[in-house]
Write a structure and sequence with these properties.
Blueprint (H helix, E strand, L loop, with lengths): L1 E5 L6 H12 L2 E4 H7 L8 H20 L4 E4 L5 H14 L3 E8 L1 H8 L10 H10 L8 E5 L4 H12 L4
Parallel strand pairs: 1-3, 1-4, 2-3, 4-5
Helix pairs in contact: 1-7, 3-4
């Protein structure tokens, strides 16, 4: 299965996605780490961003072909970025789940004021992406992140991707 976790910078998507992947024993693919690995740090032209998404899709495809579950953590703020993975899931006949993580702007501002290991995004980047952000046109789960609800979010995410019959 392929799980896409989207959201604006500071929303808590990476915190959630990394823990979800651990719970599932899934491969975790992160856009910031991928950007660093392919030498695109500080390069945010749309073409550079698409390079990052294409590299993530390549890695996701390799892992899915090996029968592994994959969690992809990225902003996915434009349909072109989302479509790469919807196409991949169709081509490989893999189930896809889309989870969008949101948070109050005050919490986001607080989170983005602190240094983060891989991300260069600050509050100005958040504001710009907020203007450009497009939720997917498919049914998906929306989770609201606070500073103390990760267990609730994980339970909701797991129920969404592994419903009880």
């Amino acid at each position: 299965m392929l799980i896409l976790v989207s959201g604006l910078p500071g929303s808590g998507k990476s915190y959630f996605a990394s823990r979800l992947s651990r719970r599932l024993g899934a491969v975790y693919i992160n856009s910031d780490q991928t950007r660093k690995a392919i030498d695109r740090m500080g390069r945010y032209a749309f073409e550079d961003k698409l390079d990052v998404y294409e590299e993530m899709a390549k890695s996701a495809g390799e892992n899915l072909r090996q029968g592994k579950n994959v969690v992809v953590d990225a902003t996915f703020y434009r349909p072109e970025m989302q479509d790469i993975f919807f196409t991949l899931s169709t081509l490989l006949h893999k189930q896809i789940f889309y989870i969008e993580v949101k948070a109050d702007e005050k919490i986001i501002q607080e989170r983005l004021s602190k240094p983060r290991a891989d991300s260069e995004a600050g509050f100005a980047v958040y504001r710009q992406l907020k203007l450009e952000y497009q939720s997917p046109g498919v049914s998906h789960l929306v989770l609201h992140s606070t500073n103390d609800n990760i267990d609730f979010m994980l339970n909701q995410g797991l129920a969404y991707i592994q419903p009880i019959p």
